[in-house]
Amino acid sequence: MNTTTQKGMFHKEYAWRGIAIVCGLFVIVLTLGIGAFLVYKGSDTFLKFGHTLWEFLGSTQWQPVDSAQGGGSVGTLIFIVGSLVTCGLALLIATPFALGSAIFMTEISDKFGEKFYRPVVQIFAGIPSVVYGWVGLTVLVPFIRNIFNRQVGHSILAAGIVLAVMIFPTITTVSADAILAVPDSCRKAAYGLGSTRWQTIRRIVLPASAPGIISGVILGLARAFGEALAVAMVIGQTTALPTSIFSTTKTMTTEIASQMGNSMEGGELKSALWTMSLLLFLVSLLFITLIHFCTSRGKKKLEGGNA
């Protein structure tokens, strides 16, 4: 290899490294910029209109005035509770099915799972949310109304089921990858000690892959928290605290989506919606932090097992 070729390879390597660094820095700057913009727009609720953090987070009185003078109330507890209850119900429904599917495609029928079942699950992840919402509105909502003898089928239950179907592929795929990351030596050691397949899965594979599975659950929860359109179509859109899974209510994302385009720029209503957006941004950062924490714990466990 002559000197000219070596110099060319050297320049290409550093050129691609520079491009990668620029792209990484751009993502970091973009994230910080979005956060700073949300802080700037959302701080008006407290600095300009004089509301307190406790009023914003702990009050159920949501009547902001769509004007620059303010004077309304900006309690978002209804939307926070609606988001938590709906997403929690979705997790309760989706997690057992997702975990069972992940175990099936990796430990029970790995060939069928990789060639057929995993692609089918991944197809669900690519379906637009409006399709889920429309199916929920035309099929699930009437079904809930008729089967439970309710006046309306729009409810937290309907939203939870729709969200559960939407986050099922995410939890399943991440959990399956976490289970596959467990070294085969751990399974062989368990079999060598006389364990059955189910004992190996329950006592060896699942505990070793638990951080990755938890990361998948958190990622699915983050997806559920950020969903607006499908939830808005089936939850009923009532500004009231839910009293049961058959109650109609609102979530933070549905309220932002329905009000942001119609509110006056610089008004109290729009400022409150920006503050709610900031709250969602902070929740997303919390989820990302938890995922990194679980992933780092999983790597340490696997390294310890390999050692």
From TrEMBL:
GO terms for molecular function: phosphate transmembrane transporter activity. Part of the binding-protein-dependent transport system for phosphate; probably responsible for the translocation of the substrate across the membrane. This is Phosphate transport system permease protein. The lineage of its organism: Bacteria, Bacillati, Bacillota, Bacilli, Candidatus Onthocola. Residues 80-291 form the ABC transmembrane type-1 domain. It is found in: Cell membrane. It is a multi-pass membrane protein. One of its GO terms (cellular component) is plasma membrane. The keyword Transport applies. Keywords: Cell membrane, Membrane, Phosphate transport, Transmembrane, Transmembrane helix, Transport. InterPro entries: MetI-like, MetI-like_sf, Phosphate_PstC, Phosphate_Transport_Permease.
